[in-house]
User: What shape does this take?
Amino acid sequence: MSQPKTVKSEEQWRAELDPLAYAVLRESATERPYTGEYTDTTTEGVYSCRACGVELFRSQTKFASHCGWPSFYAPSESDNVTLITDRTLGMVRIEVRCAGCDSHLGHVFEGEGYPTPTDQRYCINSVSLTLAPTAG
Assistant: This one.
């Protein structure tokens, strides 16, 4: 199920997001490793896009990759993220963007040998996420 698109001007995004969130989500920056709010959290719940609220990941797919950023082995719904070839910084990587608002979330890597069902690591900036803990 494809997500409705959230379209705002850069001025609107800048007014709604703090400077770090704006830099990461709208300018494809990366937060410093091991500084993000969700890097080591084990709270059960749903992770959504900080910019538009689209559900992106569930805690059941989060794992400790020890890479400095929250890592997930799959999005909650494949239609909720967009994967784009990223050729910046002299590398070829796969960028992960929110399908709802086209905000930068991080990158996905494959074949690293993590013991996960997909052998993928969605390496996501904490500042691009919000976590709604599961009640209970």
Remarks:
- The two ends are 28 Å apart (CA to CA).
